[in-house]
Amino acid sequence: MREALFIKKNKDRWLKNQQKPPSDPDEMAAEFTQLVDDLAYAKTFYPSGKVTNYINAQASKIYLDIYKNRKEESNRLVTFWKYDLPLTIRKYHTTILFSLIFFCVFFAIGFFTANIDESVARDVLGSNYIDQTNEYINDGNPFGIYENGNAFLTWLGIMVNNIGVALRVFASGILFGIPTLYDLAQTGIMVGVFDQIFAAKGFGVDFWLVVFVHGTLEIAGFILVGAAGLVLGKSFLFPGTIKRIDALKLGAKDGVKIIIGLLPVFVLAAFFEGFITRLYNDISILTTAVFALSVVFVIWYFIIYPIRLAKRMALQQNEEEV
Prior knowledge:
The chain is mainly alpha-helical and 322 residues long. It folds into two domains: 3-69, no CATH class; 91-309, no CATH class. It contains twelve helices and no strands. Helix 5 (93-116) crosses helix 10, helix 6 packs across helix 9 and helix 10 (204-237) runs antiparallel to helix 11. The two termini are 35 Å apart.
């Protein structure tokens, strides 16, 4: 094969690899193997050609990337939390914002509807729960329901339930995201109604300081899970310029990454509900501190840090290209 024909045949693949090098380890290994074959062919038939040096440079770069990945394999978890998850979160900030707004709209609907019609609270939360809550309020201990039960069993039960719900909400996103939107709306209404019960009795501020000791992480996690489900549905409905099945695989991969990243959040939220929220009467300074730190963590890790990291990575990439 003449050198010009060899270059013409492989030029597009080489340029694609140079401009957008593979990040997936399997793709990287496959591309490296193919480049090694190209290099062997070029050295045999065009030993002094420029194309040989070009292919050798590309193969060397991928080899160094593979070596770097192997070297950092022991730090895979650190890399995931420090880079992979925040960058994935940043990639879908618009979808997460939509999930947040959608949840808040139905929160407001639940709150104001229950304010107009008291029967709404009973329809949404159940008469037994409302009666029990009213008893606690009348006894001067409005959030006494969180002091009931064994702390460890409460933590375990809530943790398993929340993770199960998260997986279901995410997986149901494959049905065009409709079930995911339904779950977001339903949960938003429930939280809004729950808030109104206490606000109507003059405990509106206390509701946030007590319930959101665990609710900050729990609700933030649920909104992110909803976004992950929408990512899954959107990738199938709107594949863009790539094949639908490839878009679905990419959406599923990113969604699973978000879900995995949220598992510790749900574990910690359940721990707070089981062990910390119940201390709001005895050690209110602790519960308030946990609430405040949870808010700071959510804003920093899921909003500020991903934006800063993405900007820093883009700046580094531009400097390397220059």
